[in-house]
Amino acid sequence: MNNVNKFNQNEYDKQYKKDHYKTITLRLKPDTADYITDAAKSMGISRAALLTKGALYIIDNGINIDEVD
After folding, report:
1. What is the value of pTM for the model shown?
2. pLDDT in single tens digits along all 69 residues of the chain
3. How far are the Cα atoms of 4, 19, 21 from residue 7, in angstroms, in the given order?
């Protein structure tokens, strides 16, 4: 069997993610990570969605976070 022309879904997915997404890594204290995880679960969204939506909301609305701990 000739595998040269066989479509490889895993390779396609890997290349798609590489072309369309970037990874951002965060270092969080365990209690902060747990807090974010619990909040995301209660909202029925992923942690990535919660952090993305929260960050974009702050940026888009010009919210000053200089004095936030």
Report:
1. 0.74
2. 556 778 999 999 999 999 999 999 999 999 999 999 999 999 999 999 999 999 999 999 999 999 887
3. 9, 18, 22
Q: Is the Cα torsion angle 40, 45, 50, 54 positive or negative in sign?
A: negative
CA–CA dist 19, 16 (Å, integer): 5
Q: Which long-range contacts (CB under 8 A, 24 or more apart) does 22-29 make?
A: 26/51
Two structure tokens written together for 46: 């992923």
Name residue 45's amino acid.
I
Q: How far apart are CA 15 and CA 11, in angstroms?
A: 6
Residue pair 40/49 in contact by the 8 Å Cβ criterion: yes
| Residue 25 DSSP one-character state | -
How many angstroms separate the CA atoms of 14 and 21, rounded? 10
